[in-house]
Automatic annotation (TrEMBL), chains A, B, C:
Protein name: P-II family nitrogen regulator
UniProt-listed Gene3D superfamilies: 3.30.70.120
Source species of the chain: Floridaenema fluviatile BLCC-F154
Domain of life where this protein originates: Bacteria
TM regions (residue ranges): none
One family name in Pfam for this protein: P-II
Length: 99, 99, 99
């Protein structure tokens, strides 16, 4: 089977829904124009920050596939948001059909 | 700890909601009977194709775990859909509890 | 670029929505306090278990990032649920911003 797949880094950001515009702005600043948003519920904590919030929360999950260097910059830029907001982000290498 | 886990390839397809029946038909044709569908919003572009669409869009995310060879065939079969539709697909190796 | 990322194991559990309380109880028992829940639809089968269910179903997807040893225990504890419920679970290594 001969066909060519792209390689990239899937970055998943899960955070409070109020962060949506800020996160999209950050992605746009980095030249990331494609992303997918899914509404989510979060509970408990991913560490103390999320533990500060009681019960169920309205979160969003944003996924995007970017180059490795862009994923570095994205995670670096997301870090300061954790000071005041419940937010996690993680990344994984993927291959497939995308630009 | 002694217990046995399965290994497989998680394929995630994100595309326009109107593709849902076509994607399920494709999965069925490949003998894939198990999948999960989550409604999603997409914006901007994963490349020019998605860039043709304005603003927010109604998308779906379909996930399935298949054998490596099936994931090859699935990505190969999805390719032509990108000519006329906003669609990306990517895969990752996973292990866990599944058949 | 110098910044420090955490490493962990992303565990994704997809199962019948009726399992939600039981799954959260299991996570809590293992000391996992942070997780994300997304409503999902499942269809067909991930093996015979899900094949027993007709048509579309109301499922949930629960995601959490844990230590590797915790992911072992979690998958071990989830196994028995598969006897009576449609449930799959899989894991992947990730790095990023989380505790």
């Amino acid at each position: 089977m001969s066909f060519s797949l792209s390689s990239g880094v899937l970055v998943t950001i899960i955070g409070e829904a109020v962060l949506q515009d800020q996160l999209i702005h950050l992605l746009t600043k980095l030249g990331v124009s494609g992303y997918t948003i899914i509404p989510a519920q979060g509970s408990g904590s991913h560490g103390r920050r999320m533990g500060d919030m009681a019960g169920y929360n309205t979160n969003i999950e944003i996924k995007t596939i970017v180059a490795a260097t862009t994923s570095d910059q994205l995670l670096l830029d997301l870090g300061p948001l954790q000071a005041n907001h419940a937010l996690i982000a993680f990344r994984q290498s993927v291959d497939g059909l995308f630009d």
